[in-house]
Design goal:
21% helix, Pseudouridine synthase, globular, Structural Genomics Hypothetical 15.5 Kd Protein In mrcA-pckA Intergenic Region, Chain A, 17 strands, nine-stranded mixed sheet, 324 residues, 3 domains, alpha+beta, 7 helices
């Protein structure tokens, strides 16, 4: 059934857009979905319809949001191929493919990792507070591939979610970024929040921001790009992608925070073709470590980057070899 949500705008330090405030306040609802609700008149401000997503709010205003009934509160099992790295009675570790959405949300009701887990793991239970993402204790962006763990029961969910929240997971990524970091190792400590120019994106900012820290290690340099290993100290939305852009080395293949074109790199047709076939950002979660919630054993899992990432990396290595 449809539901009503009543909100009172809290002090944000400055005027904030209606769609941004709702996206930050209401869990698991995208700005595009909320914008449609606003346009339909499903959101009122002090009793009057709010018809523009860009309308600025002030502290103390009363909002009412009419949320339509969701198509399904419980995801259904779907026979979607999964690369399972480990499974026991408490948890399952997978190598998520690039392009796979982690859990159902408006615009992605099916075809997600959760739908696949429900099919492949008959003992998978409804865990956590959100029926649309049972067992999901951490996420990867749609076009980020790599290692993820999901809980199969409530006890495992509690212990794994606690580790994730307290940053006890070991999370390591590989990425291909434009240009070369001069340093062998370094740290990007730059707070993040929603972009004031485009609220659909995250940005390095000091306004309504949260601490964000990314450690990097340069593994290979190719003049026009480099291969880096990244370790998260915090886990903000799009953190690695935003920090790489902020550092002047946007991620190759990134449709949101990357380069508009590769023309400025001055590369040949072969390398251009390899970069253009990247399936989203060249970012791969290569390693995940955590403590097993019941045995107390430290577990660590790794996976190799997908073929499009590897093809781009090989093309960059060929370029380096040709230039010697």
């Amino acid at each position: 059934m449809p539901s009503l949500v009543h909100l009172t705008v809290e002090d944000t330090g400055e005027a904030v857009r209606l769609d941004v405030y709702l996206a930050d306040t209401l869990d698991n609802l995208s700005r595009s979905y909320l914008k449609k609700l606003i346009q339909k008149g499903n959101v009122t401000i002090d009793g009057q319809p709010g018809t523009k997503a860009s309308q600025l709010l002030q502290e103390g205003q009363k909002l009412t949001v009419l949320l339509p009934a969701p198509p399904s509160l419980v995801p259904s099992p779907e026979n979607i191929p999964l690369d399972i790295l480990h499974e026991d009675e408490h948890l399952v570790v997978v190598n998520k493919a690039s392009g796979m959405v982690v859990h159902p949300a408006p615009g992605h009701q099916g075809g997600t990792l959760v739908n696949a887990l429900l099919y492949h793991c008959p003992d998978y239970e409804q865990t956590g507070d959100d029926s649309r993402r049972p067992g999901i204790v951490h996420r990867l962006d749609r076009y980020t591939s790599g290692v993820m763990v999901a809980a199969k029961n409530q006890s495992a969910y509690f212990h794994l979610a606690k580790q994730a929240a307290e940053r006890d997971f070991e999370r390591r990524y590989l990425a291909l970024v434009a240009g070369e970091f001069p340093e062998e190792r370094g740290c990007i400590n730059a707070s993040m929040g929603r972009s004031l120019v485009d609220p659909s994106r995250m940005a390095v900012t000091g306004i309504n921001a949260k601490t964000a820290i990314t450690h990097f290690e340069t593994l290979e340099r190719f003049q026009v790009a480099c291969l880096v290993r990244l370790t998260l100290e915090t886990g903000r939305t799009h953190q690695i992608r935003v920090h790489m852009r902020f550092a002047g080395h946007p991620m190759l293949g990134d449709p949101v925070y990357g380069m508009d074109s590769y023309d400025s790199l001055g590369i040949d047709e072969e390398l251009m073709a390899a970069l253009e076939q990247l399936d989203g950002q060249a970012l791969h979660a290569e390693k995940l470590g955590f403590t097993h919630p019941f045995t107390g054993e430290w577990l660590s899992f790794s996976s190799s980057p997908p073929s499009d990432f590897q093809d781009a990396l090989n093309a960059l290595r060929n370029l380096k070899s040709d230039n010697k």
